[in-house]
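Hi support team,

I submitted a single chain yesterday and got back a structure, but I'm not sure I'm reading the token output correctly. Could someone confirm the output below corresponds to the sequence I sent? I've pasted both exactly as they appear in my results page.

Thanks,
R.
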Amino acid sequence: MTDQEIKKNIEKAAILISQNNNDRKLIILGPTSVGKSSLGIILAKKLNGEIVSLDSMQIYKGMDIGTAKPSAEELAVVPHYLIDCQPLSEKSNVASFIDKAKRIESEILNRNALPIFVGGTAMYIKAFVDGLFEGPKSSPELREELIAIANERGSEFLHRELLSPVDPITAKKIHPNDLFRIVRAIEVYRLTGKPISEQQTQWENKNTEYRLIGLTMPRELLYKRIEERVDKMIDSGLVDEVKKLKSLGIEKNKTAAQAIGYKELLSYLNGEFSLERAIELIKRNTRRFAKHQLTWFRKDERIDWFDI
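Hi R., thanks for writing in. Yes, this is the structure output for that exact sequence:
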């Protein structure tokens, strides 16, 4: 399937969605590289909408190429929020992100416009729609201990050896590279003696205030688009972007430094492996992330799926 055919399919989906939306607030979700941003812009133009990003990494200034932020031209077409608005020195978390998104939502509604939320960060979307799990207060000492282990042995080690044995349900939902959520899940278990999966009962009553639109495409095509996107990011200067961010201290922000594309290139810049190997890992990890996104989203029966 050509890019032009994919573009036409996105336009067809936009027509179908806009014809029977009835002013419901929209959330456009799906795996990386599937066309969420393009659909969001088309719908915003049709429905007097304004776009709010629900991507946990696009919020950071300077993380442009690797997070596939909308271009300057796209940002000029319709208003966008929660993109390129937070310095790397300020760490973001789910609670603060959701609070910002909710405030922006109210402002958009007050302007009689339609909020259109776009993103692929499953945990953030879930928390935004259904509420945030309120667990025990964090333990700085325990977090420091777990992050030290991750720095030495990798987030995958925490996921495999410390989280999976005590909470396999949560482990299946969290990507092995998602250090923040892995640490939080282990922390909740250590502090309460109960897995976080047993404590998230408030999510049983699902919110229907939002219309959830999911985009998908054949896996072979999706993986091909992912690999092409990674090559394009490298050609567009992703290595130089990561070099600059490294000089600005991105490694002090553990969440940002774990982002796919940045983690692998930081390892390359630190002499751990070659650039070719870094690119291979970015492609592999992005494919795995896309599979994880689809696995998570497929469990939600509220999502109205469109094949692109």
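A quick pointer for reading it: The CA atoms of residues 175 and 292 lie 7 Å apart. Let us know if anything else looks off.

Best,
Support desk
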